[in-house]
């Protein structure tokens, strides 16, 4: 508009919960250009492109209480199917001597289960297939996350490109729980410009309720404290009461609600030969 960028939109495959005929959509419009039809024009173009590619379902997100965006999406046929909670932790307030003692105490308590926590950086030195082991654990843990929609797991190549090849990936901040040589849990931090983000915390089903997830998170908080990271952020699915309760106990404070919305486009377009 007058030579200035006032809006943009894009389509992409979902990074998780990918499925045939499903795409993820994003539209953003500069505040000064709202109410002029820019968003509707972008959305119409994206819907047309999605149909041309054979998509029948579109996913997107909005933050509560962004009433303008929610009204815009609902008017376009999008409805809410899931919620996620964003939270943050001030690291200096969360780390103390008592938590160092807790790490040591839990090491003793979990010794009988042959459990230990090491970093991915250490595992890469010992195991040539460490990255693939992380992929297999991550894939297994995602099956139990109440994400609102389900889909096909990422391939190893997609996982490497989307997770391991990103600028924020930090092997020394990926903490893995081992039972003997089996990978059974992980707490994984990504570095961000203003701190770090917990990308995943999870434990295999048969070892839950032993305090292993908390033990892993304490390792992550300690690492952040020692590296001078001021803040940790995380995002959890609203139905996942267990991880939200754990985060609250560690001092995480909710900051925003992310609403996930979906629209159906109908039958896929027929291709012409």
Would you give an account of this structure?
The protein is globular. The chain has helices at 38-52, 67-75, 91-94, 97-109, 120-126, 130-142, 156-164, 212-226, 241-250; strands at 7-12, 22-29, 57-64, 79-90, 115-119, 169-179, 182-192, 195-203, 231-237, 253-264. α1 links the parallel β2 and β3 (57-64). The model has no long low-confidence stretch (mean pLDDT 94). The chain is built from 9 helices and 10 strands. The chain has a 10-stranded mixed sheet. Helices cover 35% and strands 33% of the residues. With 273 residues, it is an alpha+beta fold.
Summarize the entry for a quick read.
The chain has helices at about 40-50, 65-75, 90-95, 95-110, 120-125, 130-140, 155-165, 210-225, 240-250, and strands spanning about 5-10, 20-30, 55-65, 80-90, 115-120, 170-180, 180-190, 195-205, 230-235, 255-265. With about 270 residues, it is α+β, with helices and mostly antiparallel strands.
SSE pattern: EEHEHEHHEHHHEEEHEHE
Morphology: globular
What structural class is derived from the secondary structure elements?
Answer: alpha+beta
Kindly report the average pLDDT value.
94
List the total number of helices: 9
Give me the count of strands: 10
End-to-end C-alpha gap: 38 Å
Question: Helix coverage percent of residues?
Answer: 25-40%
The strand line-up of the biggest sheet is 1-2-3-10-4-9-8-7-6-5
Q: What is the CA-atom radius of gyration, in angstroms?
A: 21 Å
Q: Regions with pLDDT < 50 over 5+ consecutive residues? A: none
State which percent range the strand residues make up: 25-35%
Main pleated sheet: 10 strands, mixed
């Amino acid at each position: 508009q007058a030579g200035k960028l006032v809006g943009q939109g894009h389509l992409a495959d979902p990074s998780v919960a990918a499925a045939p005929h499903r795409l993820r959509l994003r539209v953003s419009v500069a505040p000064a250009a709202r109410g002029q039809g820019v968003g509707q024009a972008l959305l119409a173009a994206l819907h047309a492109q999605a149909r041309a590619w054979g998509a029948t379902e579109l996913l997107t997100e909005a933050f509560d209480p962004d009433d303008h965006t929610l009204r815009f999406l609902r008017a376009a046929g999008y409805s809410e199917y899931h919620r996620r909670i964003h939270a943050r932790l001030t690291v200096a307030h969360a780390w103390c001597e008592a938590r160092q003692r807790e790490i040591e105490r839990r090491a003793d308590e979990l010794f009988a289960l042959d459990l230990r926590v090491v970093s991915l950086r250490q595992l890469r030195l010992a195991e040539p297939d460490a990255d693939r082991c992380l992929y297999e654990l991550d894939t297994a843990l995602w099956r139990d996350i109440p994400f609102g929609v389900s889909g096909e797991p990422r391939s190893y190549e997609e996982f490497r490109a989307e997770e391991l090849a990103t600028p924020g990936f930090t092997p020394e901040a990926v903490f893995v729980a081992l039972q003997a040589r089996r990978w059974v849990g992980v707490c994984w931090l990504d570095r961000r410009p203003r701190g770090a983000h917990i990308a995943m915390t999870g434990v295999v089903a048969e070892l839950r309720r032993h305090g292993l997830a908390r033990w892993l998170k304490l390792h992550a908080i300690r690492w952040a404290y020692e590296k001078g990271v001021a803040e940790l952020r995380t995002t959890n699915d609203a139905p996942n009461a267990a991880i939200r309760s754990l985060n609250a106990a560690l001092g995480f404070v909710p900051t925003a609600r992310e609403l996930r919305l979906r629209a159906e486009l109908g039958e896929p377009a027929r291709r012409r030969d």
